[in-house]
Design a protein that fits this description.
Radius of gyration: 25 Å
Strand order of the largest sheet: 2-1-3-4-5-6
Largest sheet: 6 strands, parallel
Number of helices: 12
Organism: Streptomyces carpinensis
Protein name: Response regulator transcription factor
Keywords: DNA-binding, Transcription, Transcription regulation
InterPro entries: CheY-like_superfamily, Sig_transdc_resp-reg_C-effctor, Sig_transdc_resp-reg_receiver, Tscrpt_reg_LuxR_C
Domain HTH luxR-type: 149-214
Shape: elongated
Mean pLDDT: 84
Distance between the termini: 72 Å
Length: 222
């Protein structure tokens, strides 16, 4: 017997193509809608057996808020997340929000259908390799992504880092030039490049950004 389901994804074309493929396999697809502010409300109002909910960024804060809302209002609806290869935190966040499964965007239609059937039966619908990868990373965690201060630091040359540190310490162009043994015009050019790379409009903003992100602590001081 076909499953009464909904397909909701950021990319309408993908949602409609997936819905069409599932219809051809005998399922009753209620709607294929791009997620927006009312996406969860749409699922709640139609109350399908299973909802395929797409997400492009499972690691983003709030990515699974719609899942939580659906499960809060319609606990009988099984939600299967459709997304990119997730991190362990992505899988954990999906299931913590109430998802019944997680399927990769590049999964074959047969795999998507298996996940749908498992979810409707009340089983966890997640590929074994995703679970293996998640457990492997949890047991042997890779280095965490660099934070904002480290990211900004990588954008600057060593000379520009020194200029930023001096700017943050309140040195004007003349003092920067003397301290670094360069011409004032060269110091001024370095300052402008630092401002441009950091995306700020003034030395004060550059100093505030460097302090807020911890960039100064990483850079050290001359």
């Amino acid at each position: 017997m076909g499953v009464r389901l909904m397909v909701v994804d950021d990319h309408r074309l993908l949602a409609e193509a997936l819905a069409s493929a599932l219809k051809l396999r005998g399922h009753r697809v209620l709607a294929a809608a791009a997620p927006a502010a009312g996406a969860a409300d749409l699922v709640i109002s139609r109350a399908p057996e299973v909802c395929l909910l797409g997400t492009a960024a499972p690691a983003e804060p709030g990515a699974f808020d719609p899942v939580a809302k659906i499960k809060r209002e319609r606990p009988q609806v099984a939600v299967v997340v459709l997304g990119p290869v997730p991190s362990p935190r992505g899988i954990a966040a999906a299931f913590a929000a109430g998802a019944s499964g997680y399927v990769r965007h590049d999964e074959r239609i047969e795999g998507v259908e298996r996940a749908i059937m498992k979810a409707r039966a009340g089983e966890a619908a997640v590929a074994p390799q995703l679970l293996q990868g998640a457990f492997g990373e949890l047991l042997n965690p890779a280095a965490q992504p660099d934070d904002e201060g480290q990211r900004l630091l990588r954008m600057l040359t060593p000379r520009e880092v020194e200029v930023l540190v001096r700017v943050a310490e309140g040195e004007d162009t003349r003092v920067i030039a003397a301290g670094m043994g360069i011409a004032p015009s060269t110091a001024r050019t370095h300052v402008q490049r630092v401002l441009m790379k950091l995306g700020v409009g003034s030395r004060l903003e550059a100093a505030a950004l460097a302090a807020r992100t911890g960039l100064l602590d990483r850079a050290g001081r001359p």
